[in-house]
Design a protein that fits this description.
Leucine-rich repeat, LRR (right-handed beta-alpha superhelix); 5-stranded parallel sheet; 20 strands; 4 helices
């Protein structure tokens, strides 16, 4: 009986190591399970917790969320883990407040959800025509986004307070840029508004501290209130002869504005309705009959293949993108889990060997 007790006592450490290994590895292995669901009539979404990538696949429009619809996005529970968003070919819209770094409360209050600003990369398809209101609200870590040719609608507050975003090229297919769409995107240094946009909405490019040059192409008729208000480093503005009204404060507090290049004559300029609060515009030197160079065609995204590939020999999941590459970064979480598994297995084998040696010596 005593010898049996001694043998059990010797084996006890091995049992403990095995139990600890299970407790550590179980969560890691469970984390491989993707979170998924639907986000539109013909759209599905899937979240890979290892890469932090959320992929939306299918065809048609994405659902809308927020106070108006009394609901949150279906990935709201993992939004603090999302590092990359891949919108696959076939998707035509991004829903209101889809990837906002804040949560719009169903009680109509916008509150800080105390969420880590994890989203850094966004891949958009050539089929995209609409970005909904607040879609990327306060996503400060997004540094670059390629707006595809074919995009028509950029909703209110779409890129509000995306302070890391730069540069931004607005496709010539865009017809609407919403209020405060790029408010406080302070890294943007130059912007061109295509002539397909009839009105630059209120506050659309307000408080862009890095903005130094604005080009507004022929076809734009109205610059709304505070459209470029507070852009205190703005130095030059190019305006087309199609401009008929510049509303109150459109160029408010543009203290660095020195030159306005106007495509029309002095007589045509005199007929433009200019509201109050545009002293910066009034004090600048107006250069008449300026020839606006036609902007270079917007770089169009080549058709991309968003089909998720099988795991390769390195265990990495990849998405083929011609215009923007899916990040095939090293999956440190997975490597850590398997390395830990290997170490614990070796320790377990070592302890068993020691126990066997110990028992044999006692005999």
């Amino acid at each position: 009986m005593k010898r049996l007790f001694e043998k059990l006592t010797a084996i006890f450490p091995a049992i403990m190591v095995f139990a600890v290994s299970l407790s550590v590895l179980t969560p890691a292995l469970n984390a491989q399970a993707a979170t998924n669901g639907t986000c539109g009539q013909n759209l599905t979404w899937e979240f890979d917790s290892y890469t932090g990538t959320l992929t939306v696949s299918g065809t048609g429009e994405m659902d809308k969320w927020g106070a108006e619809y009394q609901t949150f996005s279906p990935w709201n529970d993992v939004r603090d883990q999302i590092k990359k968003v891949v919108i696959s070919e076939g998707v035509t819209s991004i829903g209101d407040w889809a990837f906002s770094n804040y949560v719009e409360d169903p009680n109509n209050d916008l509150f800080d959800g105390d969420v880590a600003d994890s989203l850094k990369e966004v891949v958009l398809p050539t089929t995209l025509t609409k970005i909904g209101s607040g879609a990327f609200y306060c996503c400060n870590s997004i540094s670059q986004i390629n707006l595809p040719h074919g995009l028509e609608y950029i909703g209110d507050n779409s890129f509000y307070f995306c302070t890391g975003l730069s540069p931004v090229s607005i496709p010539e297919t865009v017809t609407y840029i919403g209020s405060s769409a790029f408010y406080f995107t302070s890294n943007i240094d130059e912007i061109t508004i295509p002539g397909s946009v009839s009105t630059v909405s209120a506050g659309a490019f307000s408080q862009l501290s890095g903005l130094s040059r604005v080009t507004i192409c022929d076809g734009v008729g109205i610059i709304d209130e505070m459209a470029f208000g507070g852009c205190y480093n703005l130095k030059s503005v190019i305006l087309p002869s199609s401009i008929s009204e510049i509303k109150s404060g459109a160029f408010y507090y543009n203290e660095s504005l020195s030159d306005v290049y106007y495509a029309g004559s002095e007589e045509e300029w005199s007929r433009v309705v200019i509201g109050g609060g545009n002293e910066s515009l009034d004090n600048a030197v107006i250069h008449f009959n300026y020839v606006i160079e036609k902007p270079e065609p917007t770089t169009t995204c080549e058709p991309v293949n968003n089909e998720i590939q099988d795991y390769d020999s390195g265990g990495e999941e990849s998405v083929t993108q011609n215009s923007t590459s899916f990040d095939n970064s090293v999956d440190y979480n997975r490597i850590t889990a398997f390395a830990l598994c290997g170490i614990l297995a070796l320790l377990l084998i070592l302890i068993i060997l020691l126990v066997i040696i110990f028992i044999k010596k006692r005999k």
